[in-house]
């Protein structure tokens, strides 16, 4: 039997546990860090937004470098991806807690502390997230099955989102409220421990597939090195990747701004109704698990390209609904607010899968396996979106006179919060639709890529024929 190992359903679910941690950390920072900086540290919204932008810009440009490092990795004991998750996740947990320590410093000292801790957090997250997101490419050679893998990955990951949206506020209240420094530190520490354990479980679940590559080792021994210029071709000459990144990036910008404003919107626009934020997490999690059963049908019916375009059109309708619904109409407002992450869940799943398809597309065209480098562009764009989203949000809040000490903000501030949550996403969704019109991977292209990748992998792992043998080889090499 030739090498054709595919991950079992059990392994896919265990691997996806890592996305609980990934999503929890991402959501916690994206949802609460701006509020924490403005209301706990006392940093102005503009300065806070600048911190996010500078830190993310510094960090974002390290993502491709991290991708190249991973692509070159070929550990006999830990494979290609696992070492970075196993050793990086505890460090990420520690730095995550440090971000919420609220040191007794001058305002200048607090700003420096925020810059330093946020940049370190971003770099640690890079070390863990890039290999985590690249792993599905070795779980299946089938582009169709990878869509299901991404659906499972996202559905399980939304448990992390649920934990943040449904539990963080009650936990903060339990430890002293959202104005208590100690409460934020305790909640951050609990999430850090929880997430570290999830990352390690995820990494251990793929040990049968993330293994030493004999062909890559022989290449290295012969001195056959792939140049920087050759490696960069997998992204610079990749039309499929470029279109997905434009589509995902504009959406991500809208989502970052929307998530960052939720605390403000529920607290001020809706009149101290932050307890309703948990509904978003529950709805998204339930819907994501439903997606596992229908994603195959949806992709088969429309394809990833048209599937994303349709979802973007629906997202525009939801944003318009929120824009024209009075804030005191809680029922309708919640419908439109909840609809946005549900729509985003579909688009995120399809976009992640399309990025991995574009990695195969690049390998098919160039012969170079740069899966981690391609995956790093996804996090690169995500971080750029976070950077500019936070800066825009912070600048606008200060410009319209947001004051943390006020129980109720001015009408101008309330309108600014609403417009940022609706008009910016509408513009972003339109850009996404335009980009996906030029996405070049068709169903025929997918079949050709799958055949090429399966044959190439079989040659790379020649002599390792079954899953049991792979596990045995790995054990011997350890």
TrEMBL record:
- Give the GO terms filed under biological process for this record: carbohydrate transport; sodium ion transport
Keywords of the record: Membrane, Transmembrane, Transmembrane helix
| Name the record gives this protein | Glycoside-pentoside-hexuronide (GPH):cation symporter
Indicate the transmembrane segments per the record: 12-34, 40-62, 83-102, 118-139, 151-172, 184-206, 239-259, 279-300, 307-325, 331-350, 417-439
Q: What is the lineage of its organism?
A: Bacteria, Bacillati, Bacillota, Clostridia, Lachnospirales
The record's annotation in InterPro entries points to:
MFS_2, MFS_trans_sf, Na/Gal_symport
Recorded GO terms, molecular function? symporter activity
One family from Pfam that matches here is MFS_2
Q: Name one GO cellular component term.
A: plasma membrane
What organism does the UniProt record list as the source? Holtiella tumoricola
List, alphabetically, the PANTHER family matched. Answer: MAJOR FACILITATOR SUPERFAMILY (MFS) PROFILE DOMAIN-CONTAINING PROTEIN, MAJOR FACILITATOR SUPERFAMILY DOMAIN-CONTAINING PROTEIN
